[in-house]
């Protein structure tokens, strides 16, 4: 996969040289380049922003440097036959679609991702309209809070997508049993010593009974998800749960009705 990131703070993306993503780049599994938006300006002051039409606080990013930068990274991207897909342009913004594990999986199938890091009040909207001719444009939010710019969001999204690329995570098994892979939060984990500061590891994990361990872990996922993210249970497919799992949900205050979990009133 090819990833291009355009930013006025290229140094902000230095962590992408570290850890699993850095290693994936070294190993040739991921071809990632960071570009300085200012190098696509033509004026002496390398201006990237201006005051907003209509008034208001802050500055808006000018369109032309963005068009130059995006045209350059699209032209340098992987070759594709006439009429086949476009690169995906991701524009981090609190006004975007909410990023998720499902979207990370979708993006991991693409051959080129381009990230356009806005700063200030954002990028002139016409850039996104123009870019739609050359890219599949996806404004994307990390969550309902405001960052100072897109760079931190790009670090998160590149890591979430990059670790799904074949060969990046050493043991692909570890991608299966983790939070959000099955619509639930992950179960709690423990390591040695089995007794630590008067706290014991749950006995079932020392039992060697793999069936019981798997069941305990599933039930812990249900308990955690009900406690921390009950919204995830609204879409959980409870149609084919074993009896013990229905009982576990029952104890958490949920009934299974037509394959869906339903919170019992007053539970
Ligand atoms: N830029 C500023 N805030 C953001 C957010 N919540 N998600 C993605 N990009 C952003």
Concise structural overview:
This protein has 8 helices and 11 strands.
Overview of the molecule:
- A hairpin with a 2-residue loop joins strand 8 and strand 9.
- The protein has helices at 19-26, 63-75, 101-108, 125-131, 151-162, 210-228, 230-233, 243-251, and strands at residues 2-7, 31-36, 49-50, 60-61, 88-98, 112-116, 136-141, 195-196, 199-200, 254-257, 260-263.
- With 267 residues, the chain is of the alpha/beta class.
- It is built from eight helices and eleven strands.
- Helix content is 30%, strand content 19%.
| Helical content class | 25-40%
Q: SSE order in H/E notation? A: EHEEEHEHEHEHEEHHHEE
Taking all residues together, what is the mean pLDDT?
Answer: 96
Question: In what range is the share of β-strand residues?
Answer: 15-25%
Determine the oligomeric state from the structure. single chain
Based on DSSP secondary structure assignment, what is the total number of beta strands?
11
Give the low-pLDDT segments: none
Label the structural class: alpha/beta
For the largest beta-sheet, the strand count, sense and barrel status come to:
5 strands, parallel
Strand arrangement within the widest β-sheet reads 2-1-6-5-7
Radius of gyration: 23 Å
General form: elongated
Keywords:
alpha/beta; 8 helices; binds adenine; two-stranded antiparallel ribbon; five-stranded parallel beta sheet; 11 strands; elongated; 267 residues; 30% helix
Write the layout of secondary structure elements.
Blueprint: E1 2-7, H1 19-26, E2 31-36, E3 49-50, E4 60-61, H2 63-75, E5 88-98, H3 101-108, E6 112-116, H4 125-131, E7 136-141, H5 151-162, E8 195-196, E9 199-200, H6 210-228, H7 230-233, H8 243-251, E10 254-257, E11 260-263
Parallel strand pairs: 1-2, 1-6, 5-6, 5-7
Antiparallel strand pairs: 3-4, 8-9, 10-11
